[in-house]
Write a structure and sequence with these properties.
Number of domains: 1
Organism: Algicella marina
Number of strands: 5
EC number: 5.4.99.18
Number of helices: 6
Bound molecules: 5-O-phosphono-beta-D-ribofuranose
Keywords: Isomerase, Lyase, Purine biosynthesis
Low-confidence stretches: none
Structural class: alpha/beta
CATH topology: Rossmann fold
Helix content: 40-55%
InterPro entries: PurE_ClassI, PurE_dom, PurE_prokaryotes
Family: Belongs to the AIR carboxylase family. Class I subfamily.
Distance between the termini: 46 Å
Oligomer: single chain
Order of helices and strands: EHEHEHEHEHH
Strand order of the largest sheet: 2-1-3-4-5
Largest sheet: 5 strands, parallel
CATH class: Alpha Beta
Strand content: 5-15%
Length: 162
């Protein structure tokens, strides 16, 4: 069994359609990961346990997505030195502006790298984690460069009529 290098954490089952975009990128790059539902508000003990064991278990990044009063990324970051990549999930009431501001405005001393609202942010968080890990993993560096080349190849030089 391959040990996970990346943890994908989310505050609720309802965040999975967004956070799945991160999982799809990690699948494409053949990076081992795990997925967990961890609510800062509803399951605080699970949050502490996950954060405290993340480094000893060998996780190199935690991608954490949450919506609304989105405390999950910041609280995880408070309890682990593993880099936390925050993904603001688009909320129904405020379209994710609440999530974005909750995650991005960390006070000095405990950083969370914050990405765009929604699926684009989740996918980019996974690409960022891949780039981080690739600094010490040549095989992954090659896969990441191939992924980017294939993305570039998929962009037509001229627009077509629909
Ligand atoms: C947050 O509250 C979750 O991250 C989710 O985005 C939001 C709503 O959760 P549910 O009420 O759908 O479980 O904690």
């Amino acid at each position: 069994m391959t040990l996970p290098l990346v943890g994908i954490a989310m505050g609720s089952q309802s965040d999975w359609p967004t956070m799945k975009a991160a999982a799809e990128v990690l699948d494409a790059l053949d990076i081992a990961y795990e997925t967990r539902i961890i609510s800062a508000h509803r399951t605080p003990d699970r949050l502490f346990d996950y954060a405290e064991t993340a480094a000893p278990r060998g996780l190199q990044a935690i991608i954490a997505g949450a919506g609304g009063a989105a405390h999950l990324p910041g609280m995880l970051a408070a309890k682990t030195r593993v880099p936390v990549l925050g993904v603001p999930v688009q909320s129904a009431a405020l379209n994710g502006m609440d999530s974005l501001l909750s995650i991005v405005q960390m006070p000095k001393g405990i950083p969370v790298a914050t990405f765009a609202i929604g699926k684009a942010g989740a996918a980019n968080a996974a690409l960022f984690a891949a780039a981080q890990i690739a600094t010490t993993n040549n095989a992954l560096a090659g896969r990441l460069e191939a992924w980017r080349a294939s993305q570039a190849d998929a962009v037509a030089e001229e627009p077509l009529d629909e």
